[in-house]
Amino acid sequence: MIRVMIADDQAMVRTGFGMIIGAQPDMELIGEAADGVEAVAMVRRLKPDVALFDIRMPRMDGLEALRLLAGPGVADPIKVVVVTTFDLDEYVHQALRNGAAGFLLKDSGPALLVEAVRAAVSGDALISPSITVRLLEHLSPPAPTGDDGGLSPRELDVVKLAARGLTNAEIATQLFISVGTVKTHLGSVQTKLGARNRVEIAAWAWERRLVG
């Protein structure tokens, strides 16, 4: 079972997400928090497989809570998917830098929410397709051209597709390779780039304008 925890200051949102999670045969809801301070304490106590965090919460916002649980230097980072109504550039950028294992808009629908949880558990990261291009392409000024991070041409192919929000299975189909080969390439890419997860790989690609 995938153990999921939810942090959102709106009770209706927590209830709705809880119903979606509870309807999945391989998931269970283990806790709910109404603010960031409570969320951090609960995650550290319950150790969920995935936590769903809103951004704007009382006492401590979701981005700061995310940084404490999954940010740079955290020894045992928790997989946190940010689920919010606010798709501002600065929020996405900070969420990626703070170790988010996904970024979804609340209107993405139940199917995408469930997919994001499963993606986080498997080491993937799902970003709402509606915001991937519009936001990530503005992350930061372009890096010097020719910066390929030491990646092979095939690894770059995989990175470009991952940065567009494709799943491992979709990448495999596009490149006519197996899912296992995609995972091997992504593992190699993480090592070469020093990226902690798929989202940081996507951010690296967008920052270098590798994705059109």
Automatic annotation (TrEMBL):
<keyword id="KW-0805">Transcription regulation</keyword>
<feature type="domain" description="Response regulatory">
    <location>
        <begin position="3"/>
        <end position="121"/>
    </location>
</feature>
<dbReference type="InterPro" id="IPR058245">
    <property type="entry name" value="NreC/VraR/RcsB-like_REC"/>
</dbReference>
<dbReference type="InterPro" id="IPR011006">
    <property type="entry name" value="CheY-like_superfamily"/>
</dbReference>
<dbReference type="InterPro" id="IPR016032">
    <property type="entry name" value="Sig_transdc_resp-reg_C-effctor"/>
</dbReference>
<dbReference type="GO" id="GO:0003677">
    <property type="term" value="F:DNA binding"/>
</dbReference>
<keyword id="KW-0238">DNA-binding</keyword>
<dbReference type="Pfam" id="PF00196">
    <property type="entry name" value="GerE"/>
</dbReference>
<dbReference type="GO" id="GO:0006355">
    <property type="term" value="P:regulation of DNA-templated transcription"/>
</dbReference>
<dbReference type="InterPro" id="IPR039420">
    <property type="entry name" value="WalR-like"/>
</dbReference>
<protein>
    <submittedName>
        <fullName>DNA-binding response regulator</fullName>
    </submittedName>
</protein>
<dbReference type="InterPro" id="IPR000792">
    <property type="entry name" value="Tscrpt_reg_LuxR_C"/>
</dbReference>
<feature type="modified residue" description="4-aspartylphosphate">
    <location>
        <position position="54"/>
    </location>
</feature>
<dbReference type="InterPro" id="IPR001789">
    <property type="entry name" value="Sig_transdc_resp-reg_receiver"/>
</dbReference>
<dbReference type="Pfam" id="PF00072">
    <property type="entry name" value="Response_reg"/>
</dbReference>
<dbReference type="GO" id="GO:0000160">
    <property type="term" value="P:phosphorelay signal transduction system"/>
</dbReference>
<keyword id="KW-0597">Phosphoprotein</keyword>
<keyword id="KW-0804">Transcription</keyword>
<feature type="domain" description="HTH luxR-type">
    <location>
        <begin position="144"/>
        <end position="209"/>
    </location>
</feature>
